[in-house]
Amino acid sequence: MPSRHTTSARHRADGRAHTLLTDARLTAAHHLSSTTRRTGAAVASSGLAVSLLAAPALADDEVRTTAVDVSALTASARAIVEAAPVVASPAEASWTFENPAATAVTPPPPPPPVVEEEPEPDAAASRSRSAEPEAPAAEPAPAAVGAPAPASANGSAIVEIASSLVGIPYVWGGTTPSGFDCSGFTSYVYAQVGIALPRTSGDQRYAGVEVPRDQAQPGDLIWSPGHISIYAGGNLQVDAPTPGKSIQIREIWQSNPKFIRVG
User: What per-residue string of b and e applies to 130-143 under the rule 16 or more CB within 10 Å gives b?
Assistant: First the structure.
């Protein structure tokens, strides 16, 4: 049978386990040592006293540290703090608050209402009133319709008819014995003798012939702006005056009337 050649494997010597954390620790130690050396050099060059403590040699996997005295670096800051005023506060502090007292003012009650006493009625007057009852107020007597024609009319039929309508109330637009206005009254009276007149006073102004006042006769028309009546002779006229009044015989009050004769 052929012979076999056997090679034995080599093994590393036992040592510490090497992990990622080990690499990180060694890297941090290296940077810290370098930073410490640079800091000591910078402080020495600035004239400050630096005391470096040499550390014994350590293994490669141990952290090298260098002690730096930084008390001189903080001397100026410490001097500022010491010079600052010290504010002391007691261990136990207390405070108070004064609440002003409020006083409620109650207004006085209103005075009681004054009740006036009714005067006592006179006994004698009371007996007289109870013994004699009051009579009802008398109603005004209705105005009498009709009046005799004035003597100055000399028997004029127009004046006699107009006088018989005295007392009928004025009614705006009225043309019957239930109520007349001025032109409705004259139209109604003339119609009773067979003479037709226009409806309005303005038209009746031109229904006949104007005559002078000294030649006027009873029964002629008397016209003035906005009004018309019947001449009753002398200084009298018969007319329906204004609302609230009735047909009446009265004096001529117009300042410059026109006398119209209708034939």
Answer: eeeeeeeeeeeeee
Whether 5 is catalytic: no
Using alpha carbons, select from 195, 193, 188, 200 the residue that is nearest to residue 238. 188
pLDDT in tens, 193-220: 999 999 999 999 999 999 999 999 999 9
Sequence letter at residue 246 = S
Whole-model pTM above 0.90? no
Active-site annotation holder among 11, 181, 182, 214: 182
Q: Cβ(230)–Cβ(222) under 8 Å?
A: yes
**Catalytic residue flag (residue 122):** no
Q: Are 249 and 238 in contact (CB under 8 A)?
A: yes
CA 40 centroid distance within chain: 88
The fraction of the chain above a pLDDT of 70, given in percent, is: 50
Q: 3-class SS at 25?
A: helix
Tokens 């609230």 sit on residue = 244
Residue 61 appears among annotated catalytic residues: no
The pLDDT score that the predictor gives to residue 129 is 41
Residue type, 35: T
